[in-house]
Amino acid sequence: MKRKLLFEFWRSIPANGRLNAVINFVKMSFDDLVIDQEQEKQLKAFLKNECEKIRVKWVQKQIRLDLFLNEYEQLLNNYLTFDMLILANQSPKPSTSGGRPQKTFMDSSKKTKKRKIQHLLSDYSKDQLSFAAQLSVRASGKRNAAMLMEEVSSASPKRASTYKKARKNLDVQMKQRPYTAEEALAFFIANNFTVQSYKNVQQEAKERGFNAYLWYDYVAKVKEQCYPPVENITVTDISAELRLGALLNHTAMRICKNILGERLDTNMQNYSFIYKWGFDGSLGHSLYKQPFEDPESTDEYMFVINIISSNKTCEKSTRDHMAKSSAIITKIL
What we know:
By secondary structure, the protein is an alpha+beta fold. It contains 15 helices and five strands. The protein folds into four domains: 3-77, no CATH class; 126-175, no CATH class; 181-225, no CATH class; 230-262 and 272-310, no CATH class. 51% of the residues lie in helices and 13% in strands.
């Protein structure tokens, strides 16, 4: 135990009965401590001497905490050694082969714990016990926990209710399952979102404490993975072309990897993907004063060729014959 911890507790207790309070505080630091009368006297004499030293130095600094801490910082950071208690705690206990093994305080039941601390509840006020608990927690290195204990115990009752509600809300948020990048892209496409409309939904959900939707930058990266390598794409001022073989291979690869996954039968030797293809277009678009590389180029009409994966067939070799099965995969693209 640091001398500073003893000083903080000593300063929080009124002068009347201060020594007994310090003695009990030190005893609480040792679990299941059993000492005899001689060791009790040694402990009392040791702490009486320490308390007197603290009192003299405290008075010399005119009971000013800043002066006291600056002057005796090194002294307060030293550790106190309670040899009489350590030896008592480590001394062999008499044999109790006929009874139960004694449990530690933390392993005891709630009823037993209440019985063991009953004398503390009757001898000290809730403020003293609360402060002692804060000092003990702080001494163990848990400063944040000690600060929370101080705020909850010293503030109004509403503060504790606020902390409890915040903790409950945190547990609810931990149970929420945000979208993955792939799921966010599927949500984006299924609802025909524009980039701005998706950002609006994401921001609205975030402001209401449900950060379910990823930033659009992550969605855009996943969207780029749906395209074949860039060397297979050609874009001019009036057209965009994509190599058919690269598109088919890339689509089949992603279907097998991301959609079918482990459901693929390893006994299947061949998989055949069947696509639908078609044309679409429109005429009579407005003409704008936009120069093209080719003077004869125009953007008054649009013509599109598209393909959609419709189904998949697979073949499996057997000893007697070739068995064929097919499964429909819809809405892949």
